[in-house]
Amino acid sequence: MRAKYDQAQNRSSAGHGVQLGVISAILLLVIALMLWNTSGLKKALKASTEQYVTDVSDQLASDISSRFHIYQMTLAALSEELSSFSGPDETQQLLERQADILDFDALFIIEKNKLTDLPDLGEVDLQSVPGIKDAFAGQQTVTYIEDRQNLLFLTPIEQDGQIDSVLAGVRSKENMQQLIQPKSFSGHGLTCIIDGTGKVVLSPTDLKPFLQLDSVFKEGEDLAAEQAIAQMQQNIAQQQAGVFQFTATDDSQLVLSYRPLYVNDWLLLTLVPAGLISGSADAYMLRAFLIVGGIVAVLTVFLLLQLRYYRTSRKYLEQVAFTDQLTGGMNQAAFRLAYEKLISLGMDPGAYTVIFLNVRGFKLINENFGVEAGNDTLRHIYVSLKRHIQADEIAARGAADQFFLCLHTGDKETIQKRLDQLMADINSFSQHTDIRYYLTILQGACVVEDPAADVTIWQDRARMACKLQGEKGKCAFYSAEMLEQMKKEQELGALFEASLKNHDFQVYLQPKVRLTDGRLAGAEALVRWVHPQRGTIFPSDFIPLFEKTGDICKLDLYVFEEVCILLDRWRREGRELVPISVNMSRAHFKNLNFLRPFTALKERYHIPDTMIEIELTESTFFDEQQRKLVQNSVEEMHRNGFLCSLDDFGVGFSSLALLKEFDVDTIKLDRQFFDDIASEKAQKVIASFVQLAAKLHIHTVAEGIETQSQLAFLRAVGCDMIQGYVFSKPLSISDFERWAPPAIEG
User: Fold this and answer.
1) Are 566 and 733 in contact, with CB atoms under 8 Å apart?
2) Does residue 5 register a pLDDT over 50?
3) Cβ neighbours of residue 75 under 8 Å, at least 6 residues apart?
4) Residue 492 in contact with residue 536, Cβ under 8 Å?
5) Residues 355, 356, 357, 363: what is their CA dihedral angle, to the nearest 10 degrees?
6) Which CATH superfamily does the domain covering 1-322 fall into?
7) How far is CA 176 from CA 67, 129, 170, 272, 611, in A?
8) Residues in domain GGDEF (predicted)?
C-alpha cells in the first residue's frame, strides 16, 4: 500500500510539477508573446501613425498645390481680360472687384521700371524678389516677400506680343495660414512651407519649432533619427517626400513629414505628436505589464480588451476621417481611398466611370422647407445611391449638395439606364405626398481611360460635363470635343481684334415690311463673320463667346458705326432713309457712360434722329439691380435721338410690366408665338399683344415669319411690321439696296 501511495504521491507531484511547468511555460510563453506582441504592436502603431500623417499630409499638400494652381489659372484668365482694357480707372475698378471675389488681399499691375511701391506691402525692393523677372519673361510664377511672408502670384500680361506689365495677386501671411494649417490632427499638428534650401516661405502662427529645428532633435540618443535627418536633407534637395519619428529634446515623441508641393522648389513640413494615435494604447500596455505576474486568464482577457480598444479607437479615427458626418457614408477622402483600392485590385482602362451628381435648386429646399428637411433630403439621396451600387462600386457625398459615383461600367447606355432608375428611386417619395415634388439632379460623367491618373482628374471632368449639360435629365459625358470647344473659343477670341481691325465682320440687313402698304419700313442690322482663312463663322459660335469675354461691347459699337457709315452714304447719295435697328448687349449696362460713344458716332456721321433704333433683349430688363439703370438709359436714348425696341417680347415672365415701366417705341414678338399659328389660344395671345401695344402707341414687329398663313393672320390683327423669310432673308448691303429700290431711292 505504501508503495502504491508513494507512487501516487510521486505521480501527483510529477503531475503538479508538470502542471507547474506547463503553467510556468505558459506564463513565460505569454510573457514572451506579450513582449513580442508589444514590440510588434508598437511598430504597427508607429507605421500606422506615419501612414496616417503621410496620408493627411499628402492630402493637405495636394490641396495647397491645387489651390495655388487655381490662383494661377484665375490670374491667367484675368490677365487675358486685362489685356483688352485701356483705361487705368476701369482696370483699377476691375482689379478691386476681382480681388474681393478671388479672395486676394490685393490685385495690382507691376509695370517695368516702376517696381517700388506695392499695395498693402509698402516700399519693397522688387529687384530682390525672386520670380518677378521670370514673370516679365512670360512665365507664371509664385514667390514671396521674405520679411513679411506674403505670397505673390505673378502672371504676365501680354499685349501685341509684348510683356510690359505683370498682374500680381497678394495673399498675406494670415490669409495663407488658414490654408496650410491641418484640420485632421485635433489641433496638435503644425505645418510650414519651406524652399529647397530649408528657408521658411510661409510659417504657421507659432514659428518657433521650425526656426529652431536643429535644436529640436535629441542628439546622440537615436541613431535611426540622425540617419533619417540626413536622409531628409538629401530628399528635400531632390524634392522627394518622406516621414520619420524622433525623440525631441524634451523627450516627447514627434513625427515629421515633408512633402513636395511641385510649386517652385517648395515643400510642406508637418510636425505631429507621435502619440496622437498610440498614446492611449501605450498606457494600457503599461498597465498590462503591471499585472503580467497575475493570473494568465486575467492577462489574456486584459490583452483581448486592449486589442479590442485599439481596434475601436482605430475604427473611430477612421470614421472621423473618412465618414461624411451628415449622411454617415463615405466622404471625399473615403472616395479617394476606395478608388485607389480598386486600382490596386486591377482596373482595366474604360471599365469604370466617375459620375458627378448635383442637386439643382437645393438652396430653395432649405429656404422653403427648412435646413433639417434639406439634410433629410441629402441623407435620402445617399441611401438611394447605396441601394443602386454593386460591391465593387463607390458612392460618396462631396461638397454641399453634390455626390460622386464610381460605377463598374463604361457603356453610356448602361450608365444612363442605371441613372434613370436611380432618379426614379430618389423621386419615389413624391408618390406618398399630396403635392408632387421632384428633385432635379444634374448629371455629368467621365469614363476612366487611364486608371493610374489621379481620381481628381476624373471628378473634375465629370463636373465639367455636368456644367455643360445640354438635355435636362440626361447624363452628359465628358469628351475630347469639350476640350476642342474650349480650344476653339480661345482661338476665336484670339482672332477677334485682328478681324475687327480688318473688317472681317460684315453687316447684313434683314428688311422690315409695313403691312398697311407692303413697303419697306426699316431693317435690322445683323453681323456675319467672314474670316479670310477660317471662312464663315456662325453667330451661334461667336456671339455667346463674346458675351462671356466682354468683347461683345466692342462688336456692338463696330456694327453701330458701320450702320452710321451706311446711313451717311445714303443721305449723301440722296436716298430715302429708313430706320435701322442695332442690337445692344446687356453687358453694356455695366458701364454707366456706355451711351456716350454711340451718341458721338451718331453726331460724327450726322445721322438724323429716329433713324437708328437700339434693340434690347427682354432679358436685359430682368436684373432687378440694374432695372432703374436700364429705365434711365432708355430715357437717355430718346434724348439723344434714338428709338428703342424690345426684342424677344413675350418669352419672359414680366413682359406686360415692362411695357408699363419702360418707354419703348417698338416691341418685337418672339418667333415662338407663330410656330403654332393655327392654335386658337396662340391667336388670342398674339391679337391681345398687338391690341395692347396699339393702345400704348407702341409699334409691333413680328419676327421669324415664314408662311403666308402667318402673314395673313398678322395682317388681319393689325400688326405693324413683318420681319422674316416670307419677304427676305438677311441681305448684304448691296443686295439690300437692290432688293427694294422704290423704298430707298429718292
Assistant:
1) yes
2) no
3) 140, 153, 154, 155, 167, 169
4) no
5) 170
6) PAS domain (3.30.450.20)
7) 11, 19, 10, 20, 57
8) 350-482
DSSP for 323-379? B-TTTSSB-HHHHHHHHHHHHHH---TTS-EEEEEEETTHHHHHHHH-HHHHHHHHH
Which residue's entry shows cell 455643360?
468
- Domain residue extents for the chain: 1-322, 332-478, 489-657+729-744
Q: What angle do CA 371, 372, 373 make, to 5 degrees?
A: 90
Helices 455-467, 332-345: crossing angle, 10 deg rounding: 120
Please tell me the pTM assigned to this model: 0.47
Nearest to 678 by CA among 712, 704, 646: 712
Q: Which CATH class is domain 489-657+729-744?
A: alpha beta
CB 730 within 8 A of CB 526: yes
Return d(Cα 413, Cα 432) in angstroms, integer.
Answer: 30
Q: What is the CATH number of domain 332-478?
A: 3.30.70.270
DSSP line for 498-564: HHHHTT-EEEEEEEEEETTT--EEEEEEEEEEEETTTEEE-HHHHHHHHHHHSTHHHHHHHHHHHHH
For the segment 190-199, the average pLDDT, to the nearest whole number, is: 80
- Mean pLDDT over each residue of the chain, to the nearest integer: 80
Per DSSP, the three-state class of 479 is: coil
Closest of 691, 692, 727, 521 to residue 613, by C-alpha: 521
Share of the chain above pLDDT 90, in %: 25
Task: Check for a shared fold between 1-322 and 332-478.
Answer: no
C-alpha cell at 18: 508538470
Can you tell me the mean pLDDT for 558-582? 94
- In this structure, of 89-103, 393-407, 412-426, 707-721, the range with the lowest mean pLDDT score is 89-103
In the block, cell 403666308 appears at 708
- 192: which strand partners? 269
Residues near 566 by Cβ (< 8 Å), separated by ≥ 6? 507, 580, 733
